[in-house]
Structure formats: structure tokens, C-alpha cells
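Database export, one record per block. Field names are fixed; values are copied verbatim from the stored entry.
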Amino acid sequence: MVLIEPRGRQRAASISDVAARAGVSAQTVSRVSNGLDTVKAATRDRVLSAMAELDYRPNSAARALKSGRFQNVGVLMFSLQNIGSVRILDAITSAAAAEGFSIDLISTGDPSTGSITDALSRLDQEAVDGIIVIVEAHELSEHSITFPDRIPSVLVDSREYDDRVSVNADQKQGARLAVEHLLELGHPTVWHVSGPIGTSNAAADRADAWREVLDEHGRTVPELLGGTWNAESGYEAGKVIAARDDVSAVFCANDQLALGVLRALHEGGRAVPGEISVVGFDDNPESAEYWPPLTTVRQDFTEVGQQAFGLLSQAIQGEGIDTGLRLIENELIVRASTGSFANRSALSAS
């Protein structure tokens, strides 16, 4: 048996070691480490080569003390189960990486103001330069939350706050696209399968817009169905719809709800779109593969995430940012799940 004796821990390479190996001053190594463009290309290459040979790791804490920045952004989310929020997070992460920032993520399933304040305090203690909060709680009172005073923050939310910066897709504009599309196809009214209106700003905004459009056109506003974001909730609502002869058009608050509705309609022997047209919201990657392919509202989650980080980055750099809400418009993607009411009437007559 051969025993391998443990080695003593080797001393990490210092900035002086790199300077000696590259034949430059420690100040030049520091400039290269901090990404400054005042070092000649040939000298920079020599320093980087010395860093690689010595496995040198710049001391980020020391750089932060000198520059006042940690190159780290905190992100607070309520859930990693929401597809839209995860896609926004992905865009934030990509935008942050492009500017040399890392992400410190906290997910909390508790939307209470006390829980949010605690999470923000934890992020502040993690030495971040700014915070992005992806908000889903309904009518969250910003004034009841304690934000860290020393660093900027941006909210991903469809609400407007007097003294905060927020950005999101225009939920009402997107819902109006869906409902108006169905009315333009001649449907006398549109049913709505909603998300959790009591706990979600997006669900509340989409339901409000659905109701507003019907009122504007003088149409009957049917009873509201649904109540969560998942396909199971859509399936239960779809069974109610499938049993009624007076429903010709349905707007679902997201694509998962639409998936459940489609299943219930198929099981109930109701043709889509021959008898009932269905529109979703989000344009998830698989929505084009539903049967039939789903007409839906496309949110630009990438643009939302990029704008949120871009605004925060400007604030971190000391640029003045106007408070208020930035809304990003949505796009209606028309596929095979919607058809004209005239075709339905002809089918019924035959």
C-alpha cells in the first residue's frame, strides 16, 4: 500500500508575483485586473499570460473597496415555477454577464411585505451593487417595503410607483389584442379563464382589460372562470365551457390554462376552432405544437429582462434615471386555434 502524504496548502499568487513574472509594476497588473484601457495591448497580453501561468485570482473584495462596486447584482423572485419570470431572469443573467456582473438570486414563496423586506436586507448584506425585484404580488405596496438606501433598485412589475423604477410587458395591451382579435372574428362575446387575480398583478390586469374591451363594445361580460396559472385549472374551466352551447370564444390568461381548456374541449367533442376559438397568453415555446397550434399573445421576456438590467446598470454608474413605469408592447401571434363566428354558425346550421 502506498500512502500519499497530504501537501501543505500552497500560497496563492499575489499581485507582486504577477508583476515580477510579467516584468511590470504592481500598478500595471492592477489596471489590467480592473479592465482599464490605459495599458498597451502587448503589455496587457504579457500580464494576462503571467496571471494564467501563476493561476492568479484578483481579489474582488479589495477591488470593491477601491472602486466602490462589487460587480454583483441581487435578484429577488417569488417563484422559480413561473415560466415568464424564469425567462426574464435568464435575460437579466445574460445582460449582466455581458457587462461583467454576477447574479445573487433569492427566491421567496412568501409575498408578504415583511418577507420581501427581509429578503432585500439579505441581498444588501451580500454586497451587491443593485437589486432587481421580479414582482408578482397583487397591488404590492412599495411604501410598506424597506428597500436598502445605499443602492438602486428596479422592479419588474406592471404597476407604477411614484419613487421607484419599474418595467414590464404591457399586460392590458396584450389582453386587449386577444379579446379584440376574437371580436373582430365576429364572436358575440368572449369568455375568460383567468390566472390568480387576488395574488397576481398580471392576472388582474389581463382580466381588467378583458372586461374593459367587452364593455367598450357593448358586449355581455360572462362569468369569470379559472383561478390559477396551471393546466389543471384550465381543464376544470374547460369542462364548464365544453358543456355550454353559448360559448364560441375563450381568452385564457396564459398558455398553460389554454392547454387545459383545449384538452377539455377535445374530450367534450367540441371542435376547435370550428365551434370554439381559443387564445392564450405568453407564447411559450411549445404553444405552436398544441393541437390545434395556439393563437396567443407573445410577451418579449428578453426585452423586459434586458431593460430591467440596463436601467439598473445606468443607476449603478450614477446616471440619473427617471422614476415611473416602462411598458413593453406585446404581439398577437395568430395560429389555427381561432376562427370566425360565421364559420361556426354555418357549421351549426348544417
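Remark 1: The domain at 15-58 is CATH 1.10.260.40 (434 Repressor (Amino-terminal Domain)).
Remark 2: The longest strand covers residues 72-77.
End of record.
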